[in-house]
Protein: DUF2878 domain-containing protein
Amino acid sequence: MRPESKRLLFNLLGNQVVWFIAVIAAGRGHAWPGMLAAAVFVCLHLWSVARPADEVRLVMLALLCGLVIDGVASAQGWVVYRAATFGGSLAPPWILALWASLAVTLNTGMRALQSRLWAGVLLGGIGGPLAYLAAARGWQAAEFAMPAWRGWTWLATAWALALPTLLWAARRLAARTAVR
Structure:
């Protein structure tokens, strides 16, 4: 297997492992396993890339997206997260860990989507809420308040905007670095 293929496989599988650890642990009321798994995954990724500073910028932007998207969902009561802190009025740490983990897939596992932002809109708008549904139904890591359409609409809309924005930012950072 070529080194690029190994890196791609590690990136995609690593992100999925982090997701499962975070969601299963949150369903049991623990935030720290997901946070630890994401920290290890993100650090290993940063150690292996040529431009770690650009990756850190993407992580910070993704964390901002998570703070807004999941913070609004939580504060409005549309989504109730397990293992939440601050009285459930902010995005829980384990969700932010998932956003950081997602960020380090933008230049590796999701690189092909950088030139197909419309695919990012679809993947974000459909895949984002489905991941929450899996976390809620499979491991009780979250619960949608009734009427559930409010939470679903918010997540679908926000993810349909956030994922292509993150992909665009990743492409911009890569282009900026290539020009130097």
